[in-house]
Amino acid sequence: MEMVELIGVLDWIGGLEWDPHVRGFLAVFAGFCVWMGSIWIIVSSNSGVRLGTLLSLAGLFAWLTIMGSIWWLYGIGWAGDAP
Q1: What DSSP designation does 81 have?
Q2: Main-chain phi, psi angles of 78, to 5 degrees
Q3: Domain containing 45: what range?
Q4: Does 32 fall in a domain?
Q5: How many structural domains comprise the chain?
Q6: Which helix (H) or strand (E) holds 9?
Q7: What SS3 class is residue 17?
Q8: 52 found inside a domain
Q9: Are 36 and 60 in contact (CB under 8 A)?
Q10: How far apart are CA 51 and CA 24, in angstroms?
Q11: C-alpha to C-alpha distance for 41 and 52, rounded to whole angstroms
């Protein structure tokens, strides 16, 4: 990358500081990618890329199904102790 392009990218990233919606979306997206990526790397290193991807996606959809059914049945999801 040329220095001019890099400065333009840094200006664009710096401008995101004032938009909480974009920053929030990027934070959640980055966290999701790190979470799923770390699980995928561990599973794929032990069982191969293809099977690791299938197992990781199966685990994700199983977790989503369990959480969806809990929210559907109880309406509040997993909640801690009341203060």
Answers
A1: -
A2: -80, 120
A3: 3-72
A4: yes
A5: 1
A6: helix 3-15
A7: helix
A8: yes
A9: yes
A10: 32
A11: 8
- pTM (two decimals): 0.57
Q: Would 78 be classed as within a structural domain?
A: no
Closest CA relative to residue 58, chosen from 66, 30, 70: 66
The single residue listed with the structure tokens 């999701």 is: 32
**To which residue do tokens 């840094």 refer?**
10
Residue 40 CB neighbours (<10 A): 19
Q: State the DSSP string of 43-75.
A: HHHHH-HHHHHHHHHHHHHHHHHHHHHHHHHHS
Summarised one tens digit per residue, pLDDT across range 2-56 is: 666 767 777 667 666 666 677 778 888 888 888 888 989 999 999 999 999 999 9
**53-77 core/surface letters (b: 16 or more CB in 10 A; e: else):** eebbeeeeeeeeeeeeeeeeeeeee
Looking at 16-48, list the stretches that DSSP marks H as alpha helix, in order from N- to C-terminal side. 20-47
With respect to residue 79, please indicate whether it lies within any of the assigned structural domains. no
